[in-house]
Amino acid sequence: MVRKISLILLFIIISVFVVACKKETTILAYPEKIIIYRNGTKQVLNQSNPSFNNIIMLTNKRFNNIYTETIDVDDKCIQNAKDDGIDIEFIYAQEQEFNVVAEGLKQFKYTRLFFPLSVKNDKKNDQYLMYYGNGKKYLNNPIVNLSPSEDLIKIIDKL
Description:
Layout: H1 2-22, E1 33-38, E2 41-46, H2 52-60, E3 67-68, H3 75-83, E4 86-101, E5 105-118, E6 131-133, E7 143-144, H4 150-158
Antiparallel strand pairs: 1-2, 1-4, 3-7, 4-5, 5-6
């Protein structure tokens, strides 16, 4: 009897572990639209685009050991990135929240996110950043240490 109960408990533990491992990481909510910038050109994707879900899934996989860094952000910085390289921007209809656990819990509220993906050599570290902003502008102190994603760039290149 004890052996049967032990086997049943072992089966339940293994099942829970397998389900937990298969679950996709969801850090960011689904935006209303995604804007792709390629060397000054702009392409808008809505949720009906077949690549929309893959872009979000791969972006969520980039979050690992993130933190904030004191960097002043201005409109010129963001516009330069949009004009040079490959970037994505998530636009939300409603305000979202994002928590970062680093030296305590920090909460960020945003309606748009900007991710430089492929940048020139003098701005190479920018590809590890996530800028967040409200409806008017991007704010200082971006999220840093995102993992690079060649798969994400490949999907964007095919669009």
